Amino acid sequence: MDLTNLEAVIGLEVHIQLNTEAKAFAPESAKYTNIPNQHISPVSLALPGTLPVMNKMQIEKAIRLGLALDCEINQRNYFDRKNYFYADLPKGYQITQDSDPVCLGGKFTLENGKTIRLHHIHMEEDAGKSVHDISPDYSMLDYNRAGVPLLEMVTEPDFRNGDEVEEFINTLRRLVRYLDVSDGVMQEGSMRCDVNLSLREKGSDVLNTRCEIKNINSASNAKKAVEQEFKRQLKLLKKGEEIKQSTLDFNLKTQKLTVIRVKENAHDYRYFPEPDLPPIIISDDWIESVKSNMGRLPQSYFHQLTTEYDLSEYDATILIEYKDIADLTLSLIQESNIDPKSIANFIVNKYLPDVKTGTDDLLEYPLSQEGILEFLTLIESKKITVSSAYQNLLPHLLEQPHKTAKQVMEEMDLAQDFDLTALKSIILDILDQNPDELKKYQNGKKNLFGFFMGEIMKATKGKSNPKEAKKELMEILNTRNG
Amino acid sequence: MKDLTLEEIRHKVETGELTFVQVAEYYLAQIDAHADLNVYIEVWQEDCLAQAKALDAKLAAGQSLGALAGAFISVKDVICVAGRSVTGGSKILQSYKSPFDATAIERIKEADGILIGRTNCDEFAMGSDNRNSYYGPVKNMIGQDKVPGGSSGGSAVSVQIDSCLVALGSDTGGSVRQPAALTGVIGLKPTYGRISRYGLLAYASSFDQIGLIGHNASDILAVLNVAKNTCANDGTVSEMSNNPVDLEEVGEKLKLGIMASAFEHESINEEIKEKSLEFIEGQLAVNHDISPASFDYLDYVIPTYYILTSAEASANLSRYDGIRYGYRAENSESLDELYCNSRTEGFGPEVKRRIITGTYVLSSGYHDAYYKKAQKARRFLVNTFEALMEEYDAIIAPITPKLPWGIEEEISTVDLYLSDIFSVLPNIIGYPAISIPIGHSKEGYPIGIQIITKSWNENKLLKLAKEFSLEHQL
Questions:
Q1: Which of A440, B67, B162, B258 could form a disulfide with A445 if both were Cys (CB 3.0 to 4.6 A apart)?
Q2: Do B198 and A276 touch (CB under 8 A)?
Q3: Which of residues 23-42 of A touch B (CB under 8 A)?
Q4: Quick one: average pLDDT of A358-377?
């Protein structure tokens, strides 16, 4: 191998936790909670005599994601039992799809136009959690997650670097939120991925021994892990060593890779069809109805915001991260005559930093849509200066959202109420009161312009429009010069 | 009491000739009198009497009674009753109490049925003679040195000793029908998916079905009609299960196929064969059309059955791991050791044998040769038998090739498995089947015969049982 001309060959296995109300095969809530063993039932604890019962929403969501990614939908679905013993796996087997996954093939296009092929997407249930660091004597078990529905997406080894991996995960996370398939909150584990990486000479089509990095919980960590693993394998090759099939862990705290085990014993999971669940037939009608209820996808919003409303790609990218935000932005633009850029500016700089992102409370903002429009209209119609609106009015308005923006503005006496004549006379007064500064300015100390501006703002208590004030000041100074 | 059907008991209670409490006391006395047979693991005497008393009060107050008022029912130790122990006849579940009712139990309670106690059985319903129980063997009332059959041996004998109206058992490969035959009572395995399996400890999920044992077809019918129907907790119960089981719908003259290959099988006991043919010629043929039905694949059913049920069992029993409930071995150094010790100490030899067999037939390298092949064989048997059934209303076959054998008698595992040859077929196919008593051997041991029919045709089975079973001739 020519070690100066290597490329990484990377494939992903992404676990997407579905945001269904109930678990995959049990009635209790599938929601995340940090109180251990809150969401459990006889079924998810595998008590004797219990049986799994299909939650059809997981299939609906699988179809939705499959259609959005151009997969072929498998219309006759079986589940299989994957047998292994672990303390957080209550039944001693996981219900999964081994031989007939719900989605086959599919593809995903990166921004640079490159296509990532998908191998398949299958349904399965999550396991619970073993916690080893609470007690020195016991391992603790939390079964909240046991039985939460998952989709596992397996890609072909089409990635070549960490940037592609990062982009894929970020875009996928946004997509699953748009489709209402998953919360996509990686910190809570609702998306996790395993990265498989091997090296080869550029242009070659061999697949060399790969190593697997398990359970990565963010796109940026995936990128870092890929970059570190590339270096690690390269270093081994340079030393003349061969790459052995290994499993690695990416430590969140140290941000370092460590090899957990080399050459995994081929596990024998003894798959066989799950006899407790009848086959699920996905009819053409079902697929059609999912298709027609799919809703808009992120790219469609992006296109509209950047072309129709002329927003920057930077702003548009932020605005489409969450579907609710994209919808809100469009609604604000369409229901007012306010400059779309001002609206984007408000959402990006004020609204988003204030709201919790990534949870159900996405839209928990004190102001209603009308409230936001009132506020922005005051600025748009020059009733208040931009800086005063944001610095003085908005904080108070947010504390008393039952009042209108205009009420608060008036109570605080923030209205921009200086007409041009008044402004002119104030400027003239200020120049008269500061003859020394004026002289220095006229003698070339041009930075005193800022001093005069400050005095004007002080005198008008911030209620003058700085742009106008600046323009007037400049004109007056120029005439005095003459 | 066994001479009376539920309807007759109800009539006597309603006319003041009997009270529900007296019925309960009678049954409880029977349990006491036959304590040496090791039938009941637990008798719910107090609750049983209190509920009978409450029913008497309800009747006195003129309130309407549920369909099963007056039906006292024993429950095999594989069916969950809320607040009660359920152990599957195993050491591994000694400390376990179920927090919920099985669907069948819930419905029986709602219909005013009264549960009298929990009956002994083979461990996790694996066995053909009730010798695989942690609680020791159940004895046949006919001869205490004889087995009652299994795995629902306790259920069958609970009916045999007249300690309940109907017994709830489970039938994965004959576990209700075979002990019914060996104890001289009626045993019904309904269609797969007729009665919810929720609350039935799983042995082999695609074969298991709650079965009913009783003296009278009409009592079995009454309980079946209460216990059946779709269930939110079991997706394998068919919509078809909601159809009522109505004996009136069955014609007078049925077309019955006699499975000649079974009656001529080398393993069948001569007396059973003789009695069966006597019954067919002398009784069945009088009112029905009988003709030989050709089925040449009997020798495939045992391997198919044991490979597939062991495979399913190996996964179904993985949950008994000592982690969340049940027996946990002490002094284990690691998780693997904890599993290994708990399961080694908690399970009996037959259960271990089937777990190991099941693990083997599913393991890579053997999966295709055993599991896959057995699945194909199952498919083949289903297709073949379905085609055969096109021509008949029901098929008549033996239920077991053997008369009750000795509790101390040594029988090889393979021979014991082979004795299930006639009873596993309906479970492989999912069809309902019934065992009805037709007479006795020279030494006085009961002999039964099996009737198999298409799915959802239990009415035909019960109609024939009503017509022919020689009840109460013990």
A1: A440
A2: no
A3: 42
A4: 76
Q: Can you tell me the distance from the alpha carbon of A11 to that of A119, in angstroms, rounded to the nearest whole number? A: 10
Beta carbons within 8 Å of A358's beta carbon, 6+ residues apart: A183, A184, A185
Mean pLDDT of A402-406: 86
Is A444 within 8 Å of chain B by CB? no
Walk me through the domains of chain B, giving residue ranges and CATH numbers. Answer: 1-474 (3.90.1300.10)
The answer to whether A173 contacts chain B (CB < 8 Å) is: no
With contacts defined as CB-CB under 8 Å, which chain A residues touch B170?
Answer: none
Of B197, B335, B362, Cβ closest to residue A272: B362
Chain A with chain B: Cβ pairs closer than 8 A: 108
pLDDT in tens, A163-221: 999 999 999 999 999 999 998 888 788 899 999 999 999 989 989 999 999 989 999 99
Chain A: closest CA distance from residue B177 (Å): 22
pLDDT value at B318 more than 80: yes
Return the HEC string of A147-202. Answer: CCEEEEEEECCCECCHHHHHHHHHHHHHHHHHCCCCCCCHHHCCEEEEEEEEEEEC
* Residues B63-95: tens digit of each pLDDT: 999 999 999 999 999 999 999 999 999 999 998
- In A, which residues are within 8 Å of B234 by CB distance? 51, 53, 276
- H-type alpha helices, B392-442: 413-418, 425-429
The rounded percent of chain A whose pLDDT value lies above 90 is 60
Assess whether B228 carries a catalytic annotation.
Answer: no
Neighboring chain B residues of A272 at a CB cutoff of 8 Å: 311-312, 315, 362, 367, 371
Burial (Cβ within 10 Å: 0-12, 13-18, ≥19) of residue B419: buried
The pLDDT tens digits for B166-208 are 999 999 999 999 999 999 999 999 999 999 999 999 999 999 9
The structure's pTM equals 0.88
ipTM: 0.96
B356 interface with A at CB cutoff 8 Å: no
**CATH architecture designation of domain A420-481:** Orthogonal Bundle (1.10)
CB contact under 8 A, A270 and B359: yes
Chain A residue numbers touching B311 (CB-CB < 8 A): 272
Kindly indicate the confidence band of residue B319, based on its pLDDT and cuts at 50, 70 and 90.
very high
Residue to test with chain A: of B233, B310, B355, most A Cβ within 10 A = B233
Averaged pLDDT score across all residues of chain A? 90
Contact yes or no for A278 and B236 at CB 8 A: yes
Average pLDDT, chain B: 96
DSSP assignment of A57-126, as one string? HHHHHHHHHHHHTTPEEPSEE--EEEE---TT-TTSEEEE-SSS-SEE--EEE-TTSPEEEEEEEEEEE-
Distance CA B353, CA B347 (A): 10
Choosing from B151, B276, B310, B469, which is the catalytic residue? B151
Determine the Cα–Cα distance for residues B207 and B202; give it in Å rounded to an integer.
10
**Angle of the B373-389 helix axis to the B298-316 helix axis, nearest 10:** 130
A279 inside 8 A of chain B by CB: no
Is B76 considered catalytic here?
Answer: yes
Tell me which residue of B125, B88, B111 sits closest to B227, measured CA to CA.
B111
Active site residue B95: no
